[in-house]
Amino acid sequence: MSIVTNTNNFVQLTGNITKDVESITTKNGTQLSKFTIAINKTVINGNGETVSKPSYVDVCAWGDVGIATKDLKKGDRVQLQGDLVGNEKSTGANGKTYYNTYVNAETILNITPKSANESETANN
């Protein structure tokens, strides 16, 4: 496990992968894996009811960290550490500027409870 050295830009998140990991190899041979995690936050709505509100975070994993994601799949619970990266994008149609922020993961741990993995295997 690598250690995050940039403490001015550090995030640690725990969430569930929303769809299977997309992996590619770049032209120079570097592995890149991309996925999104859902992080649930419990809030009290206007009616006083406790509800779960998800936030979605895009994740990129490069090199050895990207290679290590090969066994991750939709539904797996992961804990990751890394830094935030902001990209600016502009849509050509309306000229509006949109900002996309993602986590550049430096460590990723699969913390899916063992029974959840066994149940899915049994159902297949």
From TrEMBL:
| Species for this entry | Aquimarina algiphila
Spell out the protein name for this chain.
Single-stranded DNA-binding protein
Which of UniProt's keywords are assigned here?
A: DNA-binding
Q: Which NCBIfam families match?
A: ssb (TIGR00621)
A single GO molecular function term of this UniProt record? single-stranded DNA binding
- Cross-referenced InterPro entries: NA-bd_OB-fold, Primosome_PriB/ssb, ssDNA-bd
> What Pfam family is a match for this entry?
SSB
What is one process in the GO biological process aspect for this record?
Answer: DNA replication
Q: Which PROSITE patterns match?
A: SSB
